[in-house]
Amino acid sequence: EFEPQRGFTYVSPAATSITGYTPEEHYADPDLGFKIIHPDDRHLLESVVAGDPEEPQPLALRWVKKDGTVIWCEQRNVPIYDASGRLVALEGIARDISPERRAAQQYRLLFQEMQAGFALHEILLDDAGNPVDYRFLSVNPAFEHLTGLKAGDIIGRTALEVLPDLEPCWVSTYGRVALTGEPAQFIDYSGPLGRYYEVHAFSPAPNQFAAIFSDVTERLRAEEQLQHSHDLMRYIIEHNRSCVAVHDRDLNYIYVSQRYLDDYQVADQDVIGKHHYDVFPDLPHKWREVHQQALAGQVSSAEDDPYEREDGSVDWTRWECRPWYEADGSIGGIIVYTEIVTERKQIEEELRQIKDKLEDQVAEQTRELQERVGELERFRDATIDREFCMHELREEIARLKAQYER
Asked: Using CA atoms, how far apart are residues 10 and 26, in angstroms rounded to an integer?
């Protein structure tokens, strides 16, 4: 009361939990109601006491509690006048709104500082109730950065006023969200802005929708380049004339050459994504060890290595197994280069057998030739001995003839 004596007529017990001051302390100090108001906000309450009709209700004021803590309270004040129109009392109801104020401050901070764009809109309908446009109600700074549109230029205006060439799909999608209340998440291209956006849209109130979005243009372009590189790598490996298989860390196939499929008789299987040991359940244990060594960073190879198949046949292989690395330097998987050299090994074996056979034939012929040479040498020696005997015989005959003639 202000008249006839200044002081509190009634203070509820809740005052203690809100301010820390008991009702009795209020009764003892008629000015306590003003003293607990933060100095920067006292003018607001004084305007109410002065009967200022422009002062809005309810009032949000800061109160200083008995322990010095500052809280926000919402006050609804009702002035009471006497018959002459003088203010004689003030009836007020207050509640602690500190949690709401903190949440609002955090929301404003989030709204201002969030990296994603945010915009609140009102959907506009034609006479038949179909979405035809939408109006900008509020945007955050990230919206301006991501779109190049300034809040001062678009708030209160419609999308088609700001972006006359806007694709109809934006209006229809947002209209469905605003009218049904069902949220939507999508990626779409804005021709007027020349960017791709990933959008999460929801309806906070009837005929309204909010959009939280980010610019994914560079990400999509990078993914397109990455996909192109992936397709190119797959094309190069698929058409490689050697047997090439690329596996991830779990030994699932990532790339494989057609020659690999043909040579290892798995051409009718779609091996991409399958585990290597599921495709080759009979793989020798020694190769499994090689794979683990490669995953640990070791490079292994062999020139002529037998590979016994499940049916008992043997293929000879030349292979190399090495790790491949991710961009961060970690091992991403292994690459296996193989070549089936069974045909070459067979040819080499045939050539060896032919060589051995020829060597045997040469040795046999050499032995026969040596025997013939020996026979010839013996014949020659016998012939020479005979010729020598004939010569001596002729000389003896001639000597005897000469003696006879004498």
From this structure: 9
Rg (the chain; Cα; Å) = 52
Residue 194 has, within 13 A of its CA and on its CB side, a CA count of 2
Q: Token digits for 153?
A: 């230029």
Reduced to 3 states (helix: H, G, I; strand: E, B; else coil), residue 93 is strand
Asked if residue 58 has a cis previous peptide bond (ω within 30° of 0), the answer is yes
Q: 117-125 and 131-139 as β-strands: parallel, antiparallel, unpaired?
A: antiparallel
For 184-341, where are the alpha helices, taking DSSP H only? 217-238, 258-263, 276-279, 285-295
On whether the CB atoms of residues 283 and 275 are closer than 8 A, the answer is no
Q: Cis before residue 4, ω within 30 degrees of 0?
A: yes
For residues 308 and 286, is the Cβ–Cβ distance under 8 A? no
* Residue 349 to residue 375: CA distance in whole angstroms: 39
Spatial distance between the Cα atoms of 402 and 405, rounded to a whole number of angstroms: 5
- Give me the DSSP letters along 59-81: EEEEEE-TTS-EEEEEEEEEEEE
Nearest residue to 133 (alpha-carbon basis) of 120, 151, 142, 121: 121
Find, among 213, 206, 147, 149, the residue nearest to 184 by Cα. 213
Question: How do residues 109-162 score in pLDDT, each as one tens digit?
Answer: 666 667 888 999 999 999 999 999 999 999 988 899 899 999 999 999 999 999
Q: What is the pTM of this model?
A: 0.44
CA–CA distance, 140 with 174 (Å, rounded to integer): 19
Instruction: Determine the Cα–Cα distance for residues 59 and 65; give it in Å rounded to an integer.
Output: 18
* Interatomic CA distance for residues 295 and 284, integer angstroms: 17
Per the CB < 8 A criterion, the answer to whether 8 and 27 are in contact is yes
* Lookup: tokens for 222: 């990078």
Q: Name every residue whose Cβ is closer than 8 Å to that of residue 93 and which is 6 or more positions away in sequence.
A: 75, 76
Strands (E), 114-194: 117-125, 131-139, 184-190
DSSP-derived secondary structure letter, 39: G
Taking residues 172-179, report their average pLDDT: 95
275: left (phi over 0), alpha (psi -120 to 50) or beta: beta
